[in-house]
Amino acid sequence: MGQLKPNQVLNKAYRQVAIEIEDFNHFKDVLRTLLFTVSDGQREETQKEHLRNFLSDTFYKPYYMAPEEDIDLAVRLDKTSKSNIGLLIEVKSTTNKNEMISVGNLNRKALQELLLYYLRERITKKNTDIKYLIATNVYEYFIFDAQEFEQKFYQNKKLKKEFQDFEDGRKTSRKTDFFYSEIASLFIEEVAGSLDYTYFDIRSYAKYLDGDTAPKKLIELYKVFSDVHLLKLPFQNDSNSLNKKFYAELLHILGIEEKKENNKIVIVRKAVGRRNEASLLENTINQLDAEDCLRKVPNIAMYGSTQEERLFNVAMELCITWINRILFLKLLEAQMLKYHNGEQCYKFLSIQKIRDFDDLNTLFFQVLARSVHQRTASVLKDFEYVPYLNSSLFEVTELESNTIKINSLSQRFELPLFTNSVLINRKEKQQFNSLPTLNYLFAFLDAYNFASEGSEEVQEEAKTLINASVLGLIFEKINGHKDGSVFTPGFITMYMCREAVANSVLTKFNNFYNWNCTSVTDLYNKIDDIAQANQLIDSITICDPAVGSGHFLVSALNELIRLKYELGILVDSEGKRIKKSDYTFSIENDELIVTDADNNLFSYNPLNEESRRIQETLFKEKKTIIENCLFGVDINPNSVKICRLRLWIELLKNAYYTAESDYKQLETLPNIDINIKCGNSLLHRFDLTDSIKSVLKETGISISQYRNAVSKYKNAQDKAEKWELDSMIAEIKSKLTTEIGAKDPKKLKLNKRRAELVNLLAPQLFEMSKKEQKDWQKRVDAVKKEIAELESYFEEINSNKIYLGAFEWRIEFPEVLDADGNFIGFDCVIGNPPYIQLQSMGTDADVLERMKYKTYVRTGDIYCLFYEQGMNLLKPNGCLCYITSNKWMKAGYGKELRQYFVSETNPVLLIDFAGVKVFDTATVDVNILMLQKAINVQRTFACITQGINGLQNLSDFV
Description:
Helix content is 44%, strand content 12%. The strands form six sheets. An eight-stranded mixed beta sheet has the order 18-17-14-19-20-22-21-23, with helices on both faces. The longest helix has 33 residues, at 307-339. The mean pLDDT is 89.
């Protein structure tokens, strides 16, 4: 690429972060001062001091910044002189044109000096924390990413040897000029044409410094100079780190807290002394208890063994349902305000509109759950601009029907503000210590920015951005409240999905066309039928059997769209290609980001035809992929709710106004809930290999009929149609379950043995001899024993609560069954299965042992079983990609799993993060393992990460 502009190098997700106007104006003032104070007649040292003042007055006061030996300016990673250098700056005077590099000639002394300083830091001092290197004459800036130096210089063994010989005095001169002219210049010349760098001249920005506007170019300059960019710091919408402030206060409003149990961080009800009746959880528990609601909940044993456990878990599920709806509505409101340039009539989630829990209940079920023409006159008046989205998120859940809805909550109490509440330090300087719960919740949400995706702006108050990825991390933490599950960083899910999806796409095309493509580039060069290529990708099935909040499915969704773009087959509804010359689709910080030919971030404008085309394409692609390609199962019903919510949010991002409504109504959302199901992925009664052909014949059910019912359900436009289809699907599954159960080999065997016992005990016509009597008694005892064992087996299934959650992969997803009902499997299984020691699971582990997993070892871990079950769920040549504990590689309990990998899979890729902390709160060492359901060809690409620097760009590292 060579020379790059600021908007080409800034992280696209960081570009979406708004700047506070006060900070922006300060930057303009300091930049204006720099331009005014620097002049050609000044000494180089004076100009260096001006630059140092500029950097210190803008972003670098919190860092130790000073000359270091020969380095003109070095910025360390904190305020101490002992921390590593993160930024190297070589400064030349404005008149020193001979030594300063230029766009036409990089191979001058300034870059040669930077190379020497870099090698000394990287080789001699073993500093792996260098982020950028800058050559400047105060006006012009050449900024080199340290990763470029790593690839172009550090990995050059010949250069490293020459440098070491020079440093050790084995060259004809020890002078640095010798190194510059005889060593550095030669190696720079080799790569000068391919060396990427950012270039700009601050004099060209002078025209933007006057006036009150905030041009994009000046915003870009602000961000290029920022410590977030030059020191590669996390930022507000960074999908690799949790927004702890938002998360902590949300827990406070809910009435829950984190607690460490058995080396895991779990979420529990607040301790007795810290509980408050106004929190959502305590308010809910109080109403459930007062109205004796638990007795109306079917299968209440699933919610715990004690009254307290059951109250907490039922209340928690209700609260998560309600908070999911509210967060979804906050994102919808932000979208609407953005589409309509901030017109306040589109703001509906406020205490002025929603005065109490009754109004909130009305919003849920009389507004969002009804199409506009079904709403009453009073509702239309109060919520004129709230669209209908056809989301089952706003249907009364079974648990709500059996217990309470949100309008049952008490309005009487005020909730004290969280200790470090975001409301305390806001500019309004509120003078209160507590608020009614709903007021508090709305004010809390208003203190954050839910609407900055796709924008680059300066705001009066730059609220912290809470986008879908950030919410996803929060959801993952809350939904794993029971087992202490941790969120998977975005760079992990991005890498795993990129590798696994590419593998699945290659397999799909190679099988269909009988090709031998080994890369996406090979595919790109072969595809000539765009429509057929889209059909093939849209037929790929991806499953996460421990889906959690849906993080992996969202990453897979983004990757499939990016891959379509990369292959040149992404088209609009009329079949017109989205050209690479017009747009770029990329994934940064776990977000799919679109930029135009000028590298401007795409933002939907309902009044612009081309903007509508791109928005509609994104929505329809996401809808198609979510409906056809993505499947998930989780044992935790809250996880299932959150996963569905995340997928709806992905669609909501690209919601568009329809031509049919004269661009007044948003396109409705599909019923994607049917692809994400609740159940125990490891437990089933019907074997995947059992034939159900005779069952289909006897019941009169066809798989195409089943598939059609599911397809129609996904696109049902009203509740009546949806309920009718839901009943039809339930009836189909019930018939299949009954008939398959009747043909269960164990059931047939039990019936056979019972019949045999009846015959054995029937009166005999002739008296038996002593030997016959002995044989008869022996057979009766054996048959009775066998019957008792089989009856015990079925009694266990019927009485043990763990079986209530058994998931029947055999019939739940018709998309992975053939016409005869045979289970053909998924193209890809991906995820981060739970890590739970089987010994700690008590009798539940005994049930799993009876499932006859080859990898089951009592001293082992449940993730081992997920590997085996994941392989069972794949079609031939399918791809599995998990991140799990790496203990299986060495521990005794991993012997069976290791043998299983060798004998029954084709291991493709193994990345071991030995000693590197991947998860924020978990101390477990992990690995990424990709397997293929194929014969082991004994060619596994394996590596161990060398440190945290390699992790953010795993594709480059591997």
